[in-house]
Amino acid sequence: MSANTNDHADPLTISSYPRAIVHVDCDAFFTSCEAARDPALKGKPVATGKERGIVSCPSYEAKAVGVVRGMRLGEARKACPGLVVLPSDYELYSIYSLRLFEILRRFTPQVEEYSIDEAFCDLTGLRRFYRSPYSEIALKMKEAVSAELGITVSVGLSITKILAKLASKAKKPDGFTAVPGRLIHEFLKDIPPAKVCGFGPSTVALLHKCGIRSALDYVRRPLSFADKLLGKIGRELWHELRGEQVYSVSTEPKEKYLSISKTKTFSPSSADRDLVKGRLVRNLESACIKLRRHNLSARSLTIYLRRQDFSAAASEARLGGHSSSTLDFTGACAALFDEVFESGTLYRATGAILSEIIGESLVQKDLFDDPVKVERTRRLGRIIDEVNAVYGKHTLHLAASGSEKKVTVTKGDGHLFQPRNDLAWRKTALLKGETFRRRLGIPLLKLDARRA
Predict the structure, then answer these.
(1) Cβ within 8 Å of residue 269, ≥6 positions away
(2) pLDDT bucket at 447, cuts 50 / 70 / 90
(3) According to the model, what pLDDT value does residue 396 have?
(4) pTM for the complete prediction?
(5) Residues 47, 145: one domain?
(6) Sequence-separated (6 or more) residues with CB below 8 Å from residue 91
(7) pLDDT(254) > 80
(8) Cα-flanking dihedrals φ and ψ of residue 104, to 5°?
(9) Do 30 and 93 meet the contact criterion of CB atoms below 8 Å apart?
(10) Which of 426, 431, 409, 427 is nearest to 418 (CA)?
(11) Domain end residue (candidates: 388, 403, 418)
């Protein structure tokens, strides 16, 4: 037997579960939510993203015939003639997300909301409480989500966050994989570096040049190798993959942001200067709203315009100081827009990115600031947020963002129609007293009246 084979036979640790970390990953979350609300969609190829003109989330039935995220809808329909395409209903997905986390917190208070459809849970020490092994607890969590929400999740159980995340991806969809410490070496030998969260394409190419073909190959190298080759992230992943915890499950809400970005795709593409600028300013407003919600301030603004051919133009500006007021960024936004906008060019999306973010309490006032103007601007932002919280986001908005004109297209018979009237079903199926922007925070089942 070769030395290499012996290496692969030796466990990295003999401890099964010094810690028990679960990663819960929803399967095709957006389309799963749509199918949970509308049972007629179950088992059919479905994709969301109709309002954007591209696939944002395909169901597994659609994936099976070649439909992938980011594909244009025309191409998706060619790949799957029976594809059901729906507008995205982010309110519905948020409701399901909140309920997902509530279910998980019934099993353990240590739940980290990693994304809208992913969570890490720490079960360490709960075997005695539940009188069950960790694998049974994790399976009960999985079954509870399926029974109460009508969606499937894939679950991974191991002793670090990175290993648990790899385990949850092993048997998607609707899978469960447990990797105790004593079996890490067996699990990692079949995991290519490209599947490890934290290894990007450039890093994977570098690892291949060094003869690293699996995650096990990587952790069999000495720590000094990982440190020299990849630095801090390389060290951290080396420890995590070996079952040595670096990243703990955090129950704290996210407070640190390197940047905040808002983007919006619109269809049909447009060369209308006022419309494109209006979409950009609306993104800027949304980004500043998020800043104020988390009591943050930013100093740098980057804007980008994406052309119809998916190429993009971008530019960046830096303010004299930090701010969370949309008004303080509008001048820079207008100047950047003038710099990158090309007349006669069709654009399909705009984006605004705020960076150099700090806590609002850390903002230093400049000697030449007008304190009255600064306070007035700050209060105006808070008042706008309060009004919008009651009457709906963007009820109060800048005049520039109000220039989002209704686009009409002439059909062959000379009639005009609105091409983007693709609203989510729940935005049109209103209960008594509801409005377009104010609805009850509950998902309504979409049932066929003929079968009711």
Answers:
(1) 307, 308, 346, 347, 348
(2) low
(3) 64
(4) 0.73
(5) yes
(6) 424, 426, 439, 441
(7) no
(8) -65, -35
(9) yes
(10) 409
(11) 403
In three-state form (DSSP H/G/I as H, E/B as E, the rest C), the secondary structure along 267-330 is EEEECCHHHHHHHHHHHHHHHHHHHHHCCEEEEEEEEEEEECCCCEEEEEEEEEEEECCHHHHH
Domain end point (choices 403, 421, 437): 403
Q: How far apart are CA 173 and CA 188, in angstroms?
A: 20
pLDDT of 45 above 60: yes
* Residue 285 domain boundaries: 259-403
pLDDT digits (tens, 9 = 90+) for 82-108: 999 999 888 899 999 999 999 999 999
Say what the pLDDT of residue 363 is: 63
- E strand or H helix that includes residue 230: helix 223-241
Distance, first Cα to last Cα, the chain: 67
* CATH number, position 147: 3.30.70.270
pLDDT at 408 over 80: no
Q: Say what the pLDDT of residue 414 is.
A: 40
Number of independent structural domains in the chain? 3
| Average pLDDT of the chain to the nearest whole number | 84
pLDDT of residue 413: 38
Residues 94 and 141 reside in one and the same domain: yes
Q: Alpha-carbon distance 210 to 205, whole Å?
A: 9
Rounded Cα gap, residues 220 and 373, in angstroms: 61
| pLDDT above 70 as % of the chain | 83
Give yes or no: residues 213 and 148 share one domain: no
Q: 303 φ, ψ to 5°?
A: -120, 150
Over residues 263-280, mean pLDDT: 87
Is residue 448 in some structural domain? no
CA dihedral (11, 14, 18, 19) in degrees, to 10, reads 20
For residues 452 and 449, give the distance between their C-alpha atoms in angstroms, rounded to a whole number: 5
Residues taking part in catalysis = 118
Cross-strand bridge partners of residue 24: 119, 155
Q: Which residue has the tokens 């036979």?
A: 9
Q: Per the structure block, which two tokens stand in for 233?
A: 């992230």
> Do residue 164 and residue 263 come from a single domain?
no
| E strand or H helix at 233 | helix 223-241
Query: DSSP code of 54?
Result: B
Give tens-digit pLDDT for 7-22: 556 777 778 899 999 9
pLDDT for position 446:
72
